[in-house]
Amino acid sequence: MTLISLLNRMPGDVAIGIIWGIMALGVYLTFRILNFADLTVDGSFATGGAVAVVLITTGVPVPVAMAAAFCAGLLAGLCTGLLHTLLGIPDILSGILSQLALYSINIFILGGANKPIGVGKYNLCVSMLQVAPSIVVAALVAVAIIAIMYWYFGTEQGSAIRATGNNPAMSRAQGINIGLMKVIALALSNGIVALAGSMMAQFNGFTDVGMGRGAIVIGLAAVIIGEVVCHALFRKHNGFILRLTFVVVGGIIYYMAMGFISWLRVPTDGLKLFTALIVAVFLAVPYLKDKANSSFRKAGRRGENQ
Length: 306
Fold this sequence. Notes:
The protein is mainly α and 306 residues long. It has helices at 3-34, 41-57, 62-85, 91-110, 131-152, 156-166, 168-173, 178-204, 215-234, 240-263, 271-305; strands at 114-116, 206-208.
């Protein structure tokens, strides 16, 4: 446990953090924009990895395999959306049902619980054997997704999705098909998550059905950390594109923090506890800050009245 070993592992942590940040962009779409608690991501993240690895190992070009992973995520999100909108199943339960179904589907896709990719045999998009190029590629993918999301949510359909998340009743009164908007948003969200899963499988050199376990927690952690840091730096001048960018930054900060904890040789059984503590701290900071500011304002008003 030396400082040099910590510095040596940082580039890898940054690369993985960017990939988790890409996944968090999908979580942000449902959690913040649509205001939908979607738990499908734990399954769709692994689905993206499973589809990509199977296709790459059968000779399919990596970009095509990643596109197929994205489409598989679209289908997973579509199923969740239909369970919710057509069958009236609550949002959390519809996500849980899709997540459970995807576990068996992922085993079927892989033909087992896990599958190696053979890092040296294929020209992968990202790889732990080439960390610096992987950081560049992952960052370019993140930038492309942020740019597309920024453009899309400025279109008529994207604005309808944002309106659905903000006020479903008013959106329905304005003639927006909120059921369709939910289905589209859930499909896009899980497509992005699955794309990130395909990148994570390439970087690790393997995939398994449990790869997405806890992905929703990591995604929420990245979203919350990014929001706190963005607000601290830019206050009220944090536009939509900045918020999207800091979601990825939140993923990097989160994974670097987890890398530091691992460097301290904390038992792996305790990592989930530290994840919960990190998220709790970043959730509490804005609340405590607002509470302190309101206390100061109340004290100031009392002083003026006296």
